[in-house]
């Protein structure tokens, strides 16, 4: 064997040795990586299990909170005892809602309010329970107070209690409120940024409510006032939060708008109450389509 052949063989042997060392190193690295990934996978499974448990406890807690909130908020059956021809269309964005229906009856006088608290979910729900509690306190202490008087008193209580630990009140509520005297056939409305829609036959009267945000003195340009409304038997009244008008959807992914909603309410106002309710639900669902719900939705319809 010549010297050049010997050198070539030695070179090949060295390259084989280097390849074996590289292969051994890569195999060792692979084994270490496999062990690490298995360990990581086990840790992820444990974390996933813990997160599932935490999420379940959280959802269970919120579901129970809904039962508590429902005890404060007027439901269909209660409203229909006061206003036999009426319905509530409510669709929370989350499990609990910042929108609420409040009602109170004293002798022959009925009060009904539809409110929209700041935010949605748990914070909105907690604020709604606070507002309902304050409304109950007001009507129990000040009998026959007018709607505007109730809203002013509510505003004072919200600023008093919600500003104890902060210099700036961020929590607020928009509300429409009516007082209905059955014996004297008198209807009085007052609103803070939430409207009352009055429909008789094809005639629509819209009361917009004052630009007056309860609980926030920096966000008001008007004072709430009482408006006496003349009505006839079978007239329809509607109150709603901003969730329905603000819902995105339709062919151009635009807001539904209050104008559109009032038009839909007028088109269906001649139907029986139960039919109206189903039609309103269908309109909302068809408009939203596959788009996520924007906010809590609440609409109340009453036939006088």
Describe it:
It is built from 6 helices and 12 strands. The strands form 3 sheets. Strands 1-12-9-6-7 form a 5-stranded antiparallel beta sheet. The N and C termini lie far apart (about 115 Å). About 30% of the residues are buried. The longest helix has about 70 residues, at about 5-70. The model has no long low-confidence stretch (mean pLDDT about 85). About 45% of the residues lie in helices and about 20% in strands. With about 300 residues, the chain is of the alpha+beta class. The chain has helices spanning about 5-70, 75-80, 120-140, 145-160, 260-270, 275-290; strands at about 85-90, 100-105, 110-115, 175-180, 185-190, 195-200, 205, 225-230, 235-240, 250, 255, 295-304. Helix 1 (about 5-70) packs parallel to helix 3 and helix 3 (about 120-140) crosses helix 4.
Topology, please?
Blueprint: H1 3-72, H2 76-82, E1 86-91, E2 99-106, E3 109-117, H3 121-141, H4 147-162, E4 173-181, E5 186-192, E6 196-200, E7 203-207, E8 227-229, E9 236-240, E10 248-249, E11 254-255, H5 258-268, H6 273-288, E12 297-303
Antiparallel strand pairs: 1-12, 2-3, 3-4, 4-5, 5-8, 6-7, 6-9, 9-12, 10-11
Helix pairs in contact: 1-3, 3-4
Shape: elongated
Discrete helix count: 6
In helices, the fraction of residues equals: 40-55%
Radius of gyration: 32 Å
Beginning-to-end CA distance, first to last residue: 116 Å
Strand content: 15-25%
Largest sheet: 5 strands, antiparallel
Uncertain regions spanning at least 5 consecutive residues: none
Q: Tell me the series of helices and strands, N- to C-terminal.
A: HHEEEHHEEEEEEEEHHE
**Helix-and-strand structural type:** alpha+beta
Q: What's the mean pLDDT score?
A: 87
- Strand line-up of the largest beta sheet: 1-12-9-6-7
* Strands, total number: 12
């Amino acid at each position: 064997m010549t010297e050049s052949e010997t050198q070539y063989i030695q070179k090949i042997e060295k390259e084989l040795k280097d390849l074996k060392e590289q292969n051994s190193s890569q195999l060792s690295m692979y084994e270490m990586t496999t062990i690490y990934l298995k360990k990581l996978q086990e840790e992820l499974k444990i974390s996933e299990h813990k997160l599932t448990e935490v999420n379940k406890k959280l959802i269970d807690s919120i579901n129970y909170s809904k039962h508590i909130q429902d005890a404060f908020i007027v439901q269909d059956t209660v409203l229909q005892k006061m206003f036999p021809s009426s319905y509530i269309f409510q669709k929370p964005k989350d499990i609990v809602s910042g929108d609420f229906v409040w009602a109170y009856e004293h002798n022959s006088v009925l009060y009904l309010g539809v409110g929209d608290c700041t935010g949605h979910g748990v914070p909105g729900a907690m604020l709604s329970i606070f507002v309902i509690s304050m409304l109950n306190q007001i009507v129990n202490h000040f009998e026959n107070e007018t709607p505007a008087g109730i809203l002013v008193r509510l505003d004072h209580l919200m600023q008093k209690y919600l500003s104890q630990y902060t210099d700036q009140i961020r929590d607020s509520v928009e509300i429409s409120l009516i007082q209905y005297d059955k014996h004297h056939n008198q209807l009085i409305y007052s609103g803070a940024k939430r409207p009352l829609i009055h429909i008789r036959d094809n005639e629509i009267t819209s009361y917009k409510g004052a630009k007056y945000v309860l609980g926030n003195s920096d966000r008001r340009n008007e004072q709430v006032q009482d408006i006496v409304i003349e009505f006839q038997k079978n007239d329809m009244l509607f109150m709603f939060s901003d969730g329905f008008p603000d819902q995105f959807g339709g062919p151009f992914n635009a807001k539904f708008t209050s104008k559109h909603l009032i038009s839909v309410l007028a088109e269906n106002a001649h139907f029986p109450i139960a039919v109206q309710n189903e039609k309103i639900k269908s309109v909302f669902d068809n408009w939203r389509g596959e788009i996520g719900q924007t906010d809590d939705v609440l609409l109340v319809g009453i036939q006088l």
